Amino acid sequence: MSRNWIAVACAEHVRRGRAGGFMQVCHGKAAPLRRIRPGDRVAYYSPTETFRGRDRLQSFTAIGVVRAGEPYPFDMGGGFVPFRRDVGWVEGVETPIAPLLDRLEFSAGVRNWGAPFRFGLFAVSGHDAERIAEAMGVALPLPG
Fold first, then answer.
1. Does 18 reside within a domain?
2. Are 43 and 62 in contact (CB under 8 A)?
3. Which domain CATH number covers 89?
4. What pTM did the predictor assign?
5. Which pLDDT belongs to residue 1?
6. Residue 143 pLDDT class (50, 70, 90 cuts)
7. Is residue 141 part of a domain?
8. For residues 11 and 131, what is the distance between their CA atoms, to the nearest angstrom?
9. Distance linking the first and last C-alpha atoms of the chain
10. How many domains are there within the chain?
């Protein structure tokens, strides 16, 4: 059975992953990516536009389906070798989270709704995945 995930990264990094057909989480750690399985749906939340930026964005910036295969290392040069997973990204509209907060199960009625995002990757319900996809202008189920 497929699961649904929210991953966290700045929009600049998410767009790079979207263009390359991959995802990275938690500064390139492999362990979180091993929790994800092929066929799982993933939406990216971007708190900022740039890495360590103060330019608040607080939007969902990508949505897609994890492709077959395992996490793999990728040498980005300079000694940085993060782990990645391949994802089939779907064209969607980047959308702010604020209008969705009362409609998402993980955040409805929760004062500190941002707490789960600190983990960099967390599972959400099918209901939440549907609300996010709908807000991004994407129909579910997503093509694999």
1. yes
2. yes
3. 3.10.590.10
4. 0.92
5. 76
6. low
7. no
8. 20
9. 14
10. 1
